[in-house]
Amino acid sequence: SAFIRENCRYIANNNSMYGKAPGDRYTSQFYLASLTHNGEMMKRVCEAFGYLLHDHGIEIGEIQLAGRHWSALPILGAMSYHFGVNTFSIRRERKTYGKHNLIEGTVDSKPVLLVDDLANSTNSFAFCQSFLRSNDIPVMDKCLCILNKKRKDDATFLWDKYSEQEIICLTTRCQVTDK
After folding, report:
1. What does DSSP say about strands 87-90 and 139-148: parallel, antiparallel, or unpaired?
2. Which of 6, 60, 63, 96 is the most exposed place for a label (fewest CB within 10 A)?
3. pTM, two decimal places
4. 82-136 confidence digits (pLDDT tens)
């Protein structure tokens, strides 16, 4: 995770490379997408996710992974390649062409662990969880992400006081920025 934190810290301190407007208040979490397109970064993220899953008693061969279309795609692709696990993405709206899919990929019978690059509002997790449950697809009570935007040092948290979903993160905003 030190490699991941240092890369997030580098992005936070060198935002002009990524189009940050002078004087705006956005920090590293808004540039995390740049890092998810870096092969070495994603290799390390997969390794770290593997350790986190093991620490939480989750066997990678007994689950499938899913997330919001676009934001979770780099992570899903890397995890599928690294572990050979089934993955799929969930769209907010049906495609307007082809098969008009809401899901890209194939859903199997294993429980779904939701993944994303960033835990911010957690709307992506809530949307995916709701969609999967409404279609009788089993969803795990844990979610996985790279960066917890919350100001806590704790990388594991419930996404709100009414939810049983636990979000497990590799690093926190406090660990990569001064804010």
Report:
1. unpaired
2. 96
3. 0.81
4. 999 999 999 988 878 878 889 999 999 999 999 988 777 667 888 898 899 999 9
